[in-house]
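Postdoc handover notes: sequence design on the structure in folder B. Input tokens:
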């Protein structure tokens, strides 16, 4: 006898999306000088989720690490990337009484490439409620700069401006 199962398209689409995300995450960690290697072959059992915000003067990286202690984290920042490694340790339970576990335990490693160079010696970190927040100041040359041109004189002079001007009169213009 067969059992009818109600089709839930949203759930099915979510499952496919997660599987595609996992596939692309695995592909993004490949070293293309070697044959295909999966993160689990490197000892990684899961990869934490991230949010990356690009502001004018800084990049903010948020990493979701529920249940991970700060002592189990290793965070390294270069000018071009952030490397987060650690371990989600399992609780000591009686293996004979455990019927099912869907928790992911073990080591992880995530490399987050940055689009701009950052001052890796000026990074600020905050780890609260299972979320690691890194504030990475941009290198001065990678910050957007506004130059105000003084066109009132016969020879134009560029004057650096810290912020974007709010109003432009007839004798000035901005260039990006």
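Designed sequence:
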């Amino acid at each position: 006898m067969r059992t009818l199962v109600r089709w839930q398209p949203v759930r099915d689409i979510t499952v496919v999306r997660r599987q595609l995300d996992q596939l692309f995450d695995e592909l993004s960690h490949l070293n293309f000088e070697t044959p295909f290697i999966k993160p689990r072959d490197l000892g990684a059992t899961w990869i934490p989720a991230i949010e990356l915000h690009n502001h004018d003067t800084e990049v903010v990286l948020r990493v979701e690490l529920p249940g991970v202690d700060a002592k189990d984290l290793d965070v390294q920042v270069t000018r071009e990337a952030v490397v987060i490694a650690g371990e989600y340790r399992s609780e000591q339970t009686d293996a004979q009484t455990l019927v099912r576990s869907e928790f992911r335990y073990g080591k992880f490693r995530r490399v987050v490439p940055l689009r701009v160079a950052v001052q890796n010696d000026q990074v600020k970190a905050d780890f609260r409620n299972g979320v690691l927040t890194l504030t990475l100041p941009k290198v001065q040359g990678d910050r957007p700069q506004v130059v105000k041109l003084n066109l009132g004189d016969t020879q134009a002079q560029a004057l650096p401006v810290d912020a974007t001007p709010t109003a432009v009169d007839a004798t000035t213009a901005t260039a990006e």
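Context for whoever picks this up: The longest strand covers residues 81-88. Don't rerun without checking with the PI first.
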